[in-house]
Amino acid sequence: MSEGASHGTGRGRGADSTIVQAVKPAAGPGLEIRPMRASDADQVPAVYRAALDTGQAGFGAAAPC
């Protein structure tokens, strides 16, 4: 790209003109990272509570559901 050229919004250089591409995080053996499905809804509160209990997630002391 030539001097003065920009990416993204065309407003010049800076954070608002930077293109950032998200990448899928690595999952451990036997795990898959994917969007939540409606069929997962019953298991989500238990997973969240377990993460709270072990200090692995959240800022509160109790699950909201």
Mind sketching the topology for me?
Elements lengths: L43 H10 L12
Would you give an account of this structure?
The chain has one helix and no strands. The protein has one helix at 44-53. 0% of the residues are buried. Helix content is 15%, strand content 0%. It is mainly alpha-helical and 65 residues long.
Short characterization:
This protein has one helix spanning 44-53. By secondary structure, it is mainly alpha-helical. The relative contact order is 0.10.
How far apart are the first and last residues' alpha carbons, in Å? 51 Å
> Beta fraction of the residues?
under 5%
Characterize the biggest β-sheet: none
Overall pLDDT metric:
74
Number of helices: 1
Shape: extended
Provide the helix percentage.
10-25%
Class of secondary structure makeup = mainly alpha
How many individual β-strands?
0
Q: Low-confidence runs (pLDDT<50, min 5 residues)? A: 1-7
What is the radius of gyration? 20 Å
Secondary-structure element order, N to C: H
Features:
65 residues; disordered N terminus; mainly alpha; 1 helix
